[in-house]
Amino acid sequence: RLGHLGQSLGVLFLFNTYFPPHTGYVLHLTFSCISRQSFPVLANIRRRCLSGLNGRWHQIVGVGLGVTLCAVPVIEKQNSISLSNDALIKRAVSLVTDSTSTLLSQTTYALIEALTEYTKAVYTLVSLYKQYANLLGKMNSEEVDAVWQVVIGARVEMTTKQQEYLRLESSWMTALRLSEMAAEAAYQSGADQASVTARSHIQLVKSQVQEVRQLSQKAETKLAEAQTEELIKAQGEESSLPQGILGSTEAGEDPYLRED
């Protein structure tokens, strides 16, 4: 059986519906159990409604609710970080180094791609020159003209690729200078990590571009050799022509042009 309960239960709630963010209030709920002698009406209800039931309960327990509301200030701890001018400069210079590094990466990629295309065009022209030199003396004039037109087309293509990579090289040099200036600014402002990262990136892209440049320079060297070889063979073919043909050719030329 339950006797007269003299216990009370407290529940604590914290919320800030009607108070500023730095305060809160406490809702304290008190539950008390009161015997049937305190509330005769409840006892009558029990006798009328539960008269036919046999149970273990012989007393009706009334529950009274008492609510106590009190405002308790709650102070939130705020970590106030005072940003000095140096800290703001470091943050800004870090953003600058990131931006210049992105620009340098994009221009480096474009330049490497343009240099690669130019190198391919040079090697194509080298191959055509070698083929033309090997066919000298084996073709008639029409075939020579046809092959030479192909060579001229390859030279135009190579020149176009060269102009493209030179244009991108100018943009890459500008991006490189900006990155170097940003790295120096980061070093001067004390942003050592940003400065080191920027300089490492600069060294990396320089080495990448240098490798591709060496390949293009090697191709240009081979092109010069192929042109020299073709010129020597062409002169040899002219010297092997019959004397009558050479004489008729020279006779129709102006002596001043022939001397030049």
From TrEMBL:
Transmembrane segments: none annotated. Residues 235-260 are annotated as: Disordered. Signal peptide: none annotated. Its main location: mitochondrion. Keywords: Apoptosis, Coiled coil, Mitochondrion, Transit peptide. It comes from the Eukaryota. Pfam families: Smac_DIABLO. The keyword Mitochondrion applies. It is found in: Mitochondrion. Gene3D superfamilies: 1.20.58.70. GO terms for biological process: intrinsic apoptotic signaling pathway in response to oxidative stress; neuron apoptotic process; positive regulation of apoptotic process. One of its GO terms (cellular component) is mitochondrion. Residues 202-229 form a coiled coil. InterPro entries: Smac/DIABLO-like_sf, Smac_DIABLO. Belongs to the Smac/DIABLO protein family. This is Direct IAP-binding protein with low pI. It comes from Apteryx owenii (Little spotted kiwi). The lineage of its organism: Eukaryota, Metazoa, Chordata, Craniata, Vertebrata.
